[in-house]
């Protein structure tokens, strides 16, 4: 690395996220300088097909000028305002109306009727936890506070969201989970964990039984809420086995436990429908979303809450006065304007329909890799897929973790001009929703070349 190069400047100043910090001292970071559709370019002009849409998020690719125009127009009108102290602004109202009009169906008779804007998915999940506690205090159930997530589930990086996250690495040495209110149940990775001859349906029954056993062991009167991503993203793009959410929801209803759908990755067309909740018939009490809400051109996220929860907030306010929470940048007008324009573009360009139409080509191209000796399983829905690398497919034997096969594949793919994400030895694909069938072919071709070189 040349002294005074951009890489050296980066290394001298920035602590990178989700990165082996000591490992990157030699090479530094790859700095991106531009984008064009599904591609991004680094400072040396090298082109990469963004197979992850950045952080599972840049749904409209990297050069959507209509979003830049929306941001500029809003900056000229009202560059900043907030929603504290009974004040607000129209950019937030316009976005909230549009978002709620397309919200997933809530529980029967209890629609998602209000929205709290934030700047990240983590903040939305933290607020959802706080609201579950706040509401149960109002209802005279101060002991009903435990929150259940799933092993390998990812919900963010703030203290509560990271506690809820089920990845050991997110807890180790950070003194998390912050309290014993955070619990984790088994996660539905059918391919890796099903017993010989166990169908997806039987496996789903077992997962629901695990959840029920946990709730009963803790005492249903102590369990407030269950969080799940419709497709577990950070865990490796894990689609749920058939009947999983139907059975999980039956358990939650039985014990009066809220279902909070974390749609931060799955929302906005990713699973071939507007919401992952649509794809898997989830009827949530709250929904967190972010990322593709603004195509990631601005940091904005939203927590949608049911009318029952909203009524409880009104009741609490009648008792306590102020609703004592809020963020300076929440509902930032520029972010709201960009998000609203994003939702319009989704409609005008039929982006969700396009994603659903490209999905068979996308999944088919990756499933075509099943003939490769390194590939154990390929599974996905819409424009999200996970390719599981295996030492021995026939006997379902994984590679030793020290071999870091997934990481090696991720790095080699990058050298080949393809950006993908390794979650252990599962390689995740979530390209921008605007990807074309020929770009899907290019993506699969680059990945096959990568696997050949890794053999
Ligand atoms: N929830 C899920 C399912 C996510 O994948 C993420 C981030 O990847 C988050 C929450 C956290 O979102 P953010 O990084 O915007 O805080």
Automatic annotation (TrEMBL):
Signal sequence range: none
Stored InterPro entries: Aminotrans_3, Aminotrans_3_PPA_site, PyrdxlP-dep_Trfase, PyrdxlP-dep_Trfase_major, PyrdxlP-dep_Trfase_small
Gene3D superfamilies per record: Aspartate Aminotransferase, domain 1 (3.90.1150.10), Type I PLP-dependent aspartate aminotransferase-like (Major domain) (3.40.640.10)
Keyword Nucleotidyltransferase in annotation: no
Entry's Gene Ontology molecular function annotations: adenosylmethionine-8-amino-7-oxononanoate transaminase activity; pyridoxal phosphate binding
Record SUPFAM superfamilies: PLP-dependent transferases (SSF53383)
GO biological process: biotin biosynthetic process; gamma-aminobutyric acid metabolic process
Pfam family, one: Aminotran_3
Keyword terms of this UniProt record: Aminotransferase, Pyridoxal phosphate, Pyruvate, Transferase
Cofactors (names): pyridoxal 5'-phosphate
UniProt name for this protein: 4-aminobutyrate---pyruvate transaminase
Organism: Albimonas pacifica
